[in-house]
Amino acid sequence: MVGILLRGSHARRAATAHSDVDVDVLVGGAPYAARRAYLAEHSGRLTHLSVASRDVRSWIVRLGEPADWAFGLPVTAPARLLWAEPHWRPRIDLPVLCQPADEPRLEELIATLGKVAGARDAGDQLGIRLAAADLARLTPSVLRLANPSVRVVSRRSALSAALDLPVAPAGYREDMLLCLGLRPGSVGQLAAAASRLVGGTLPLVRPYAAEIAEVAGADLAAALVDGRLRRYVAQLGRPAGRPPRPRREAAPGRTAGAGQWLTVPVPDAPVSGAHPSPQQPAPGRTSRLDPSIAARLRRTPDGLVAAVVRQHDSGEVLMVAWMDDEALHRTLTTGRATYWSRSRGEYWVKGATSGHHQYVRSVAMDCDGDAILVSVDQLGAACHTGHRTCFFEDLPVTGAREES
């Protein structure tokens, strides 16, 4: 024996009256072995004592691998060394046990969606539920590429962090809960939620194709960039035998510059329930925007409000775009500036393909409700031309000036 460690809720000082006591016994030269559990009695009260024996060298190696319960997120879990052999003490006397994040498992995520689709077509209800739960556990490992770093200390905190990722597809939290089996739903709803999770994740991680290539290979990364992966996910979302929908002709008007704007298909979303304002939300597009906010908007006939975007600290005006109710909802709830493209009839998230992200710091509505002021932290160029701001051409002002 070379050391005894206390882990879990007692080490985190978060134990309740019902918490187990988790102890690792580190030994030299022996494989991992879970010991029989003990029920220790003290003052008439029973406590569950869980003991595992681990080879100290493989235990140290394990600290360099992702935790299988952490949804792909990095771990920093407190531990308490109760006793150690002097030779090993410097190496195992760690105040926290750190494990790295998992690699972005995009290939496995796509394969798991295939299992969902196969079980759906076979009418295998248990198979759909099992595969959907696996898919939900994989999704955060891929989305982590587009999100700020976060560390977790327990399985419960890992679930909370995974559900609260700020950069995520629309309806992400609800779809995750449904796929994990933490919210009731039919197998058809599960299959649709799984498709939305994967389909919504692809455009968000497209700027990180290089990182994905290192893990899954160049072909999968190329398929992510050129749209083949999106087409494949759409194919999996259709039951076998159903023909694909005919492709819609592009609407006339200005198109996006290469690598600048992302378009995301409009998801199925519940109606917000807002009372109609003088201008109705755009027909055919539903939204989860807070009804109290939706009721104050004064929209154009096509259901839009202007969004003026500025740099949050300098006040520099960067661009003007358009939002409908759902685009505003996504902007407020994901922390990523999301707009409605009038020419293409689709949503786009600024920076998702170019890497020129807009992280939202605050959003304000003007007194008439017909314009939105979005204060962002702009990374790189805001304009599709490559300029920092869209307002880079000064016009001559020839009017008479008043002398002071």
From TrEMBL:
Binds 1 Mg(2+) ion per subunit. Binds 1 zinc ion per subunit. Zn(2+) binds at residues 367, 383, 390. SUPFAM superfamilies: HisI-like. Pfam families: Ant-IIb_sub-bd, PRA-CH. Pathway: Amino-acid biosynthesis; L-histidine biosynthesis; L-histidine from 5-phospho-alpha-D-ribose 1-diphosphate: step 3/9; Amino-acid biosynthesis; L-histidine biosynthesis; L-histidine from 5-phospho-alpha-D-ribose 1-diphosphate: step 2/9. Keywords: Amino-acid biosynthesis, Cytoplasm, Histidine biosynthesis, Hydrolase, Magnesium, Metal-binding, Zinc. One of its GO terms (biological process) is L-histidine biosynthetic process. It catalyses: 1-(5-phospho-beta-D-ribosyl)-ATP + H2O = 1-(5-phospho-beta-D-ribosyl)-5'-AMP + diphosphate + H(+); 1-(5-phospho-beta-D-ribosyl)-5'-AMP + H2O = 1-(5-phospho-beta-D-ribosyl)-5-[(5-phospho-beta-D-ribosylamino)methylideneamino]imidazole-4-carboxamide. Residues 108-186 form the Nucleotidyltransferase substrate binding domain. Residues 319-392 form the Phosphoribosyl-AMP cyclohydrolase domain. InterPro entries: Ant(4')-IIb_substrate-bd, NT_sf, PRA-CH, PRib_AMP_CycHydrolase_dom, PRib_AMP_CycHydrolase_sf. Mg(2+) binds at residues 366, 368, 370. Its cofactor is Mg(2+); Zn(2+). Residues 236-288 are annotated as: Disordered. GO terms for cellular component: cytoplasm. GO terms for molecular function: magnesium ion binding; phosphoribosyl-AMP cyclohydrolase activity; phosphoribosyl-ATP diphosphatase activity; zinc ion binding. It is found in: Cytoplasm. It comes from the Bacteria. Catalyzes the hydrolysis of the adenine ring of phosphoribosyl-AMP. PANTHER family: HISTIDINE BIOSYNTHESIS BIFUNCTIONAL PROTEIN (PTHR42945), PHOSPHORIBOSYL-AMP CYCLOHYDROLASE (PTHR42945:SF11). This is Phosphoribosyl-AMP cyclohydrolase. The lineage of its organism: Bacteria, Bacillati, Actinomycetota, Actinomycetes, Micromonosporales. The gene is hisI.
